Give the backbone structure.
Amino acid sequence: MNTKLTLSLEKEVIEQAKSYAKKTGRSLSELVESYFKNLTEKEQTYDDIHPKVKKLIGRITLPADFDEEKVKEEHYREKYGF
């Protein structure tokens, strides 16, 4: 059973969402419902992690000053020429 929900969002966000929904052939309701479902799905636990990945946990240590965002930015710049 569907139930109505009233949301207050910035006009620009709504317009962008409508445009995205139209491009993907979906309704705003479908997008919002999908987002809420993904948001509230059971979180992955340690037991859900593949055994091969579990073996890697704790084997790599990064320096205290490691900047993940900087590394990602550099990687994308090299890969895509940004």
